[in-house]
Amino acid sequence: MTSNKLNLAGLFAGCLMASGAGAQDLAFPVGEGDFNWSSYQAFADSHDYSGELLTIFGPWLGPDQVNVESVLKYFAAATGADVRYVGSDSFEQQILVDAEAGSAPNIAVFPQPGLAADMASRGFLVPLTEGTDDWIRENYAAGQSWVDLGTFADKNGNENLFGFFYKVDVKSLVWYVPENFEDADYEIPSTMEELKELTDQIVADGETPWCIGLGSGGATGWPATDWVEDLMLRTASPEIYDQWVANEIPFDHPSVIAAIDEFGYFARNDDYVAGGTGTVASTDFRDSPKGLFSSPPQCYLHRQASFIPAFFPEGVEVGLDADFFYFPSYAGLDLGNPVLGAGTLWAITADSGAARGLMEFLQAPIANEVWMGLGGFMTPHSGINPSVFKDETVAKMNEILLSATTFRFDGSDLMPGGVGAGSFWTGMVDYSGGKSAADVAAEIQSSWDALK
Fold this sequence. Notes:
This protein is of the alpha/beta class and about 450 residues long. It has 18 helices and eleven strands. The strands form three sheets. Strands 1, 2, 3, 6, 10 and 11 form a six-stranded mixed sheet that branches.
């Protein structure tokens, strides 16, 4: 442990981000453009951490590290703090080692809440400033969802808000080719009932509605877990979803079986899937959207998260050659507009004035808008100016996020690895191959029981 401790300490010592970044270092000059500079100035006028060292450890490397450091420079410029960020692709292992060694950074940026919850239960996280939960409820779309996702039990079993979500991703998307829709005179469905009607209409027109692929090497099956999670949020309450993820209800609970069978409605009908249902498990998820772009199209619809354009054919321009819409909810069920996604959770691991100041700074519109202007950033913050988004596609995805009545984290990521990254994956492959939802769910529950 000692060597790890010294290693991280050495990395922070070697950081080049200087105290009180100068105006020339800022990505967007203060006062220029449509950014909410008043929120920056108000924060700068009321916070002074001159000379105070603030260390932040997170998962970002490469372009994302450049972007987060750009945001942190505004905090440094506003407060005079000496801010140092270190990123690592071994974050999950390293943060626990350093917490156990007593050398945790001031702030840790968790890629998902599970590890944060575990560290809170061991006394390694510090509750956020009182009133932060009220701020989130009032200023984040689906605010209670974000409070719930950042609230964990401490080492005494008392629940506190430990995590603040900043930088979010959306998964509840359906991709399509606008030209194909125009040629066929199809309209964007606004409800799940309409999406099913559209699916049937495409079949009636002699075409195939969906491209679905679960292949992903050793991770084959994971795309179906996202389908099931999205459909759970559309057929059961958020409370049932939370109980499922925590195994407070068994995996073979009727609500879970129903959600799996809802996936089967789309994936186990030969008329609905390009290549037939026998190809679902064997088609690589990276190849599955390509049928949208063939001529004539092999399919018209593809449900996948915001990252999938990286696997579109070369030259495809999102917003022109391809577009997306919200994976809709049922009009006949009173479950609002749920959104499935992911995001990073910021938590205090070594308390300090500057650490609490940074958590407050993340609430300011400017802290969100800077990264929005740099690209690749979404936020549920209702106070941001959408016009500063670098990319119109991301701005449109963020509208979906801001319209959410419920947000839930990717459930498989919150389950034990042997389930969420194991039996759930393989079970969905078995289901796509013809095994019943009840049998698959019972087997997944047995695997979960074996881990207890």
